[in-house]
Amino acid sequence: MINSAIGYIEKGYGVASGRSNDVRFPNGTISMQIPFFAREGLDLSVFFRGTLNISFPDHSYQLGNAQYFFPQIKWSQDLPPENFSFYSCFIKVPPLDESYIALIYWPHPSTKPGFHQDPNILEILAPEINGLSCGDEIKVFADSESVRFISRFT
Predict the structure, then answer these.
(1) Dist. CA 22–CA 65, nearest whole Å
(2) DSSP assignment string, 67-91
(3) Distance between CA atoms of 86 and 92, rounded to whole angstroms?
(4) What is the rounded distance in angstroms from the CA atom of residue 16 to the CA atom of residue 27?
(5) CA dihedral of 145, 49, 15, 87, whole degrees rounded to 10
(6) Pair 82, 116: CB distance under 8 Å
(7) Are 152 and 58 within 8 A, CB to CB?
(8) Which residues pair with 2 in a beta bridge?
(9) How far apart are the first and last CA of the chain?
(10) Per-residue pLDDT tens for 87-136?
(11) Domains in the chain, ordered, with CATH?
(12) What angle do CA 96, 99, 102 make, to 5 degrees?
């Protein structure tokens, strides 16, 4: 069963896209990680090399069955190996009246050395979408077996 939640774009660290000017990740962490995921069978070439950081003020979420799980990926010489999960979803962008196939990108907090996300934020990989700004509304749809959105008001 498909469930959904409305979220809003938040400003991120800029590390995933390379906008942070962190010398360890000159083109961003996503660009550095793509070859490792490709070797494991996940092609991310259709996605923008950065994440949409979506906050959910009216919902919490529970992650369930990941479409992809990659343990102990050593993608950087500067960091220890990390575990990653990816969850299928699609997003609807009401300001643009468009929908996009996407993936929830979840570096496991237990192995992530820094740049921890607020627990109300999901990082989403999507195609490049021009015209988005912080504060824009995004509706995220996912199979309830992989991601379950829970209203804070029920």
Answers:
(1) 33
(2) SEEEEEE---TTS--EEEEEEEEEE
(3) 19
(4) 8
(5) 10
(6) no
(7) yes
(8) 143
(9) 19
(10) 999 999 987 888 999 999 999 988 876 666 678 899 999 999 998 899 99
(11) 2-151 (2.40.30.30)
(12) 125
Whole-structure pTM value: 0.90
Per DSSP, 122 falls in state E
Strand-strand pairing, 98-107 and 147-151: unpaired
Q: On the CB side of 30, how many CA atoms lie within 13 Å of its CA?
A: 27
Amino acid (one-letter) located at 27: N
Query: Which stretch, 2-16, 31-45, 112-126, has highest mean pLDDT?
Result: 31-45
Torsion from C-alpha of 134, 132, 125, 89, nearest 10 degrees: 100
Task: Give me 21's structure tokens.
Answer: 């000017």
All residues at 6 or more sequence positions from 43 whose CB lies less than 8 Å from its CB, including other chains: 37
User: Can you read off the two tokens belonging to residue 112?
Assistant: 């992530």
Structure tokens at 74: 């050593």
User: Which token pair is 52?
Assistant: 């949409």
- Contact 89/67 with Cβ under 8 angstroms? no
